[in-house]
Amino acid sequence: MQPVPFIPWMWRDPSWTEAPEPDEQDLARRPDTGLIGYEVEATDGGIGKVDEDNAKVPHDCLMVDTGPWIFGRKVVLPVGTVRHVDHEERKVHVDRTKEQIKNAPEYDADDHEGYRSRTDDYYAESYRLMPPML
User: Fold this and answer.
1) Element (H, E) at 83
2) Which of 35, 73, 87, 127 has the most crowded Cβ, counting Cβ within 10 A?
3) 16-24: long-range pairs with CB below 8 Å, 24+
């Protein structure tokens, strides 16, 4: 039996997203925009916050402002890395380490397909070497 392949662009558990009512604006329907300002926690500590520019990236990503941790760089994480969302604590827990996130491909808005391909490859290898902790 083959393991289920990692799909970085899909929420693992849609119940973590608090989807608004269908009659609200399209942007408001994106579950990721409701996470703006949430702290983001890697398996070994905090990495930053979901950035206010999150709506500028595809709905299957989270833009994270890392602050001084990696020289103010913003990183884009596929939503498949999200292990748990704690709405009470306003935290998004991802199942990758700080180092794995730091070494992920840098987001390139001008090369969307290339970025997705590099990210697919990077995280597929990451999950092959270190499966998610559920």
Assistant:
1) strand 82-86
2) 35
3) 16/82, 16/84, 16/85, 17/85, 18/87
C-alpha span between 52 and 126 (Å, rounded): 27
Phi-psi region of 24 (alpha: psi -120 to 50; beta: other; left: phi over 0): beta
* Cα–Cα nearest to 132, from 12, 2, 33, 1: 12
| Cβ atoms within 10 Å, residue 84 | 14
Give tens-digit pLDDT for 2-35: 455 566 767 666 655 554 444 444 444 455 567 8
Kindly give the pairing relationship between strand 74-78 and strand 82-86.
unpaired
Q: What is the DSSP letter of 34?
A: G
pTM above 0.70? yes
